[in-house]
Write a structure and sequence with these properties.
heterodimer, A: 575 residues, mainly alpha, MetI-like fold, two-stranded antiparallel ribbon, disordered C terminus, B: 4-stranded antiparallel beta sheet
Chain lengths: 575, 270
């Protein structure tokens, strides 16, 4: 009967709501996919008919093999490049500003939908591409394997980089000194002090890059051409001329298997990580040759990344690429004056904002249950299990699951279904942001609040939330940017009236309207850049000790709520 | 005023506390002393209501509080790390509970507390701008504003250094006397316990080793544990300090055979 009665009731209700909700939008759709994979038409015998039918087709194995090859190779390249990028940021004495600029450049791909890179690579390195014309066309065809590989590396580089960059923060600099004093050769020192400590992160980066490339839809649909991969096979089976849902479901299950294996391996790789509690931030030794080499390296990477993006800014601003490369604003003006464009834009932004809002609330509550409640360990593990499953399911499988689960119902072709899909798809990272922040907060706050007469909700409102603004903003930003660029789940769920920018781009591909594609991509890009700057700024403000903006925000909200609930605001003594 | 009858606490198959029987008067300052892991914080949590009592009963002013929820018992606690709310300044922390129960303390009473704890100059400061001692006093003020029947303190002095310790000790004593407030303090430091409190409750392995006033404990320790754990510490400290000030320490005759021998040898040789 300790912190009894009311807290448990509030929490228990929330727990049930969250569990039921997440089960409905995560477990149920997955179950539907499983069920569909066994569904047969007519009198065909056997539960596994769809499975045997598919596994007997050579095209399936070819596509699967291609997927593994290109994803594996791009993951290898990505992880290696990212390792050197991150190493350079921590272990060289290059000017801080240059390091900052490079970090921005390497994270640029996160602000665009993956489908755009496919087209950007074609327009840069294709036969008549920007780079091809300026320098020289590549010796291989950009359609198919090579384009896929290049675009996948660009796509996965930011994620791999973030993992390794973060891992290097936990490396103890003093190790280098100790290693040298023990007489290690420079190579051995490098191995022991820079490579081995981040080995776990390296493996994680590789596995994550593999997973991202394997499950991505945007790049294959734009640049794979004849080189079939699982993603394109799945899409064609589901949305092609003759849809075969049963077979599609089997392909979806097939996509799920490497995903599950990846995530399991990721958790195993965690074991190689050691985290030091007391880190010494020693100085880096001076070495101009090393610094110059890294500058060159950064230059190359930046050039490769930017060369792909610059085409996005060039094509819409010329009369007709590539035959009439004269600067003009006419093309852009024409496209932006089309109401349809703005309508789709509004859809995307609205869905992104709504997904962010709903996502923040759900992840916040789930995080509270996991990290700051007295509920039984079993309840807390449930939240983790949801996060793990949400993390493992590829967007396409999720989209298909939603399609099976909700087509024919009132939810089909609504914005709500898109919001729910985003919520589940991007659940894990913000959930972990929340649990991480909550577990660092003082453990005595809820008890203190309770002793002062607060109900649990009151303490959450008056103490926990005001101290989590920075985290909440980062969560919001993550949901928003991810929702703006996502395509793999929503491509199955958008209807004629609920188009999003990314699915519109897919549609424009069919009509070969590439200028429109790039203009829409630019819209997404600038919106995301604006959102990132805005939320970064707000989060920074929230962390400052005298964050009067948030104090007055909280007070205004408090007063509003008091008025709505008709309670007397007893805040005379509080300024 | 506060009585525990045969209180036991089990976690799974581990007995944390067994057969705790004690009776505390109103306005007494009682220290709960013991080595790490002896169960003293658990005892505090039982009294507060943060954890359930496995067996036994807890009475306050004759009323059985064993199954009463924490918020309804009328006790309050100051945690070891203070648990102050960083989004509010010192004053807002102190009056936090008045939002829920506005009539608990009047403005004059709040002001009196602020002055008693010397916090007048710090009211507008943010929590992270305060020193350890100031935070401690804000945390105490916050609890006292709610006029608890019993005040619990979990290792209040362990986060503080030297001189501040003495000053906080003094303030705790003053507050307890002025408000006739029953105060329970958990500590692992014998010196703190024996100099601050009216009576000391010594816990060892989940059982009460002795519950008496400081003089009795020093002169008539109940068992060897107390002698070894508590008195020896104090004696060593004492002789170190006396040596530092170059005074003779010939008056204290050690109880233990070995120490007595050493003492005699020392006398012979010195």
């Amino acid at each position: 009967m300790s912190l009894m009665g009311n807290e448990r009731k509030d929490l228990k209700i929330l727990y049930v709501l969250v569990t039921l909700g997440l089960s409905a939008i995560l477990l149920y759709p997955l179950g539907c996919v499983l069920m569909q994979s066994f569904a047969t038409q007519g009198e065909e015998a056997g539960l596994f008919h769809n499975y045997t039918a598919l596994l007997n087709q050579e095209r399936f194995w070819v596509a699967l093999g291609h997927s593994f090859t290109v994803s594996g190779l791009s993951a290898l390249i990505s992880a290696s490049l990212a390792f050197l990028c991150a190493y350079g940021l921590h272990f060289t004495l290059i000017d801080k500003r240059i390091k900052k600029i490079f970090q921005i450049i390497v994270l640029l791909p996160l602000f665009l939908p993956s489908i755009t890179y496919g087209f950007a690579v074609i327009y840069s390195f294709g036969r008549l591409g920007l780079v091809s014309q300026l320098i020289a066309p590549p010796p291989f065809s950009i359609y198919g394997f090579w384009g896929l590989l290049f675009a996948d590396v660009i796509y996965t580089l930011p994620a791999a980089f973030l993992i390794l960059h973060n891992a290097f923060y936990y490396v103890d600099r003093n190790f280098t000194i100790v290693s040298r004093l023990m007489g290690d050769s420079p190579l051995r020192t490098f191995y022991m002090t820079a490579f081995r400590p981040v080995a776990g992160a390296l493996i994680s980066a590789f596995i994550l890059s593999f997973f991202l490339a394997f499950t991505d839809f945007g790049i294959p649909v734009s640049i794979a051409g004849e080189y079939s991969v699982i993603a394109t096979e799945l899409y064609m089976t589901m949305m092609g001329a003759i849809p075969n849902f049963g077979e599609g479901a089997v392909i979806a299950m097939a996509m799920l298997v490497p995903s599950i294996v990846s995530v399991v391996l990721l958790r195993y790789a965690e074991r190689f990580n050691f985290r030091y509690n007391k880190l010494s931030k020693g100085d880096v030794s001076a070495n101009p040759l090393r610094d110059r080499l890294f500058m060159g390296y950064y230059g190359l990477i930046a050039l490769a990344l930017l060369s792909v993006f610059v085409v996005m800014f060039v094509v819409p601003f010329v009369k007709q690429w590539p035959y009439q490369p004269y600067f003009t604003l006419d093309v852009v003006k024409r496209i932006l004056s089309d109401d349809a464009v703005w309508q789709v834009y509004t859809h995307s932004v609205a869905v992104a904002l709504a997904s962010a809002f709903v996502g923040c609330v759900v992840c916040f509550v789930a995080g509270l249950i996991k990290a700051r409640s007295n509920l039984s360990g079993w309840c807390q593990t449930t939240m983790d299990i949801f996060a793990m499953i949400a993390n493992t399911v590829p967007g396409m499988v999720l989209g298909i699951g939603f399609l099976f689960a909700m087509s024919g119902t009132w939810l089909a072709n609504t914005f709500l279904i898109l919001i729910l899909a985003n919520l589940v798809h991007f659940f894990t990272t913000p959930y972990m942001m929340a649990t991480s922040a909550f577990s660092k907060m003082n453990a005595g706050w809820e008890t203190t609040g309770a002793l002062m007469g607060d109900s649990w909700i009151k303490t959450v409102w008056r103490v926990i939330i005001p101290n989590s603004w920075s985290t909440i903003l980062h969560m919001f930003q993550y949901f928003f940017v991810s929702a703006m660029v996502t395509i793999s789940a929503v491509v199955f769920l958008t209807g004629a009236r609920t188009m999003l920018l990314t699915t519109k781009i897919k549609e424009l591909q069919y009509f070969e309207k590439f200028e429109e594609i790039f203009v829409l991509s630019l819209l997404i890009f600038f919106t995301n850049v604006f959102a990132k700057c805005l939320f970064d700024y707000l989060a920074e403000q929230a962390e400052k000790p005298n964050n009067t903006f948030f104090q007055s925000l909280t007070r205004t909200l408090n007063q509003l709520i008091s008025k709505l609930w008709g309670r007397r605001a007893t805040s005379q003594s509080l300024s | 005023m506060l009585e525990l009858h045969n209180v036991c606490k089990r976690f799974g198959d581990r007995d944390i506390l067994t057969d705790i029987n004690l009776s505390i008067q109103k306005g007494e300052i009682v220290s709960i002393l013991g080595p790490s892991g002896c169960g003293k914080t658990t005892l505090l949590n039982l009294i507060l209501g943060l954890t359930d009592i496995t067996a036994g009963k807890l009475f306050c002013d004759g009323e059985d509080l064993s199954r009463v929820p924490m918020q309804k018992r009328g006790f309050n606690i100051v945690f070891q790390d203070f648990a102050l709310f960083p989004n509010l300044n010192a004053y807002e922390n102190i009056v936090y509970g008045l939002r829920n129960r506005p009539n608990t303390s009047s403005q004059e009473e709040v002001n009196e507390l602020i002055d008693l704890l010397g916090l007048r100059k710090h009211l507008d400061q943010r929590i992270d701008e305060l020193s350890g001692g100031q935070k401690q006093r804000v945390a105490i003020a916050r609890t006292l504003v709610m006029k608890p029947k019993v005040l619990l303190l979990d290792e209040p002095l362990s986060a503080l250094d030297g001189i501040i310790k003495e000053s906080i000790k003094e303030r705790i004593r003053r507050v307890a006397r002025q408000y006739k407030l029953t105060t329970l303090i958990v500590t692992h430091d014998p010196e703190e316990a024996l100099t601050l409190s009216d009576r000391v409750l010594i816990i060892n392995n989940g059982k009460i080793a002795q519950f008496a006033d400081p003089q009795t404990i020093v002169n008539e320790p109940a068992d060897d544990f107390i002698r070894q754990f508590i008195l020896r510490q104090l004696n060593v400290k004492r002789s170190n300090i006396l040596k530092l000030f170059n005074e003779s320490h010939a008056h204290e005759i050690p109880q233990n055979t070995w120490e007595r021998a050493g003492y005699h040898i020392h006398q012979a040789v010195a």
